[in-house]
Amino acid sequence: MKWSEISIHTTNEAVEPISNILHEAGASGVVIEDRFELTKTREDQYGEIYQLNPDDYPEEGVIIKAYLPVNSFLGETVEAIKESINNLMIYDIDIGLNKVTISEVNEEEWATAWKKYYHPVKISERFTIVPTWEMYNPVSSDELIIELDPGMAFGTGTHPTTVMCIQALESTVQPGDTVIDVGTGSGVLSIAAAMLGARSIRAYDLDEVAVNIARINAKLNKVNDRITVSQNNLLDNVEENSSDVIVANILAEVILRFTDQAANVLKRGGTFITSGIIHPKKDQVKDALIAAGFEITETILMEDWVAMIAKRL
């Protein structure tokens, strides 16, 4: 399949409304290139930040990119996007240069272009994430190395929400534990749990692509004998009191939908690790966990993200 990349050179002020316009036009996501990222201060405890290339960013303003399938309606879609962006001026929104460009991208190139930005990363005291196409020599004898190829599934293992989950697993998982990974993506959290000594891990994802990729990554890391990957909606039809640990790196809105299920599936005294929570949603998730019968034992913060470790009472 061929895709069309639409690129809009605009302002920070217009990022949110233009992103919304692109989503409504059928884009499943947007790429935001903001020169501010070059000077933004980030935590660098484990070396997970890479040097960014200034050539990838505009001299001024912001570039927003999205991808639309090339079809007979593409021309009308692009014109509708341009019109909607121009209409933002009615609401006194500064759209800046408002330069719109279109280019064609092959799906194969689009699916692999991100790999040039993905390198070995030490994300915790013990874990290092290594992409399958990179060479890496361990720096210590007790280092745990996860080889990963996310493919088209979510989860390179280096996002703050994933880093916090793995750090929480390190302090939680005991040898012989049973673990459930809700929304497994690339399978990185299940693999980490297995390497920490978990006896059995059930990894669930609604996306069939993610299920297949998680199975491949589990086999690549030689832990597939302890990880069962299945297509499933959250914790639907999972037996009660069957798990020592549940880990879920997904959106806060989704976590709120199954806190009661998690309490039922966990053994008494079991641990629920949640991540993917933006800071404004922290209290809402905390209240839902407490209402479901959990005690919050630790809250982890990284950049604008929050993770929580909760124990079932």
Structure notes:
The protein is of the alpha/beta class. A seven-stranded mixed sheet has the order 10-9-8-11-12-14-13, sandwiched between helices. The chain has a four-stranded antiparallel sheet with strand order 2-3-1-4. Strands 5-6-7 form a three-stranded mixed sheet, covered by helices on one side.
CATH architecture of the largest domain: 3-Layer(aba) Sandwich
CATH superfamily of the largest domain: Vaccinia Virus protein VP39
Largest sheet composition = 7 strands, mixed
Identify the strand order in the major beta sheet: 10-9-8-11-12-14-13
* Amino-to-carboxy terminus distance: 51 Å
User: Share of helix among residues?
Assistant: 25-40%
Number of helices: 9
- Uncertain segments are 38-52
Helix-strand layout with pairing:
Blueprint: E1 2-10, H1 15-24, E2 30-34, E3 62-69, H2 74-86, E4 99-106, H3 107-112, E5 121-122, E6 127-131, E7 144-148, H4 160-172, E8 178-182, H5 188-195, E9 200-205, H6 208-220, E10 227-231, E11 243-249, H7 252-255, H8 259-265, E12 266-278, H9 282-291, E13 294-302, E14 305-312
List descriptors.
7-stranded mixed β-sheet; 313 residues; 27% helix; Rossmann fold; Alpha-Beta Plaits; alpha/beta; 14 strands
Compact description:
With 313 residues, this protein is an alpha/beta fold.
